[in-house]
Amino acid sequence: MKTKILTFTLLFVALFAAAQEEEESMKMKPQMTEIWDPEVSKITPGETPMDAPSDAIVLFNGTDLGREWTNGDGSESGWLVEDGCATVVKGQGIIKTKRVFEDFQLHIEWRSPAEVKGKSQGRGNSGVFLQARYEVQILDNFDNRTYRNGQAGSLYKQYPPLVNACKGPGEWQVYDIIYTAPRFNDDGTFFTPPTVTVLHNGVLVQNNSKLRGPTEYVGIPEYAVKKHGADVIQLQDHGNPVSYRNIWIREL
Ligand code: MG
Known about the structure:
The chain has one helix at residues 2-26; strands at 57-60, 69-71, 80-82, 85-87, 95-97, 104-111, 126-130, 134-138, 172-180, 183-184, 190-192, 195-200, 203-210, 234-235, 243-251. With 252 residues, the chain is mainly β. Bound molecules: magnesium ion.
């Protein structure tokens, strides 16, 4: 009888220990949620956040505009290139990149004229058109009122900037734009709309804003748009001599 009790006791202890061990092995450990491979690819950042990192495409370095840009019709750009920047020449029309892009991070520096002329939308107006359709407005809004969804840092006629972070006329300003291209349903409606984040002079002015459709000057942006794929970046000729320098892009 004693032997039987002893055997049962030992068996119970063994089973209990095994159960304990199993429970222990089922517990989450820190290592179980660590992902090691593939290793995150290394790049070399620029000396300052203004400088192109090693994986960026430099779209304009201040001298050779024709390397990456053309006029709207594909001919040579008529914009003025001097003093390390490219300046809109009224009537020459937009310029566009030779390359096309999907999702990207774009760094672009711009300057409205030091000599103040005009008011509201007529003062230092240009714009960055993402995939040739969606405008991030460029405007001299330093002491210059205009409609809030049309001022600098707005997604034109759709989203006003969160704040007015404009520097004065003639000062260089920076946009850092993070863009996710739309994905489409078969009928041309957005499956996911394009989203845009913009930092203006380092200040967040668009926080993952979801566009409703291509930029419209007149009328309501349409939800049902023509499907499109990768496309160019355009800079607008709005008749004002706005300048650009140090433009680089990282494809995401
Ligand atoms: Mg504009």
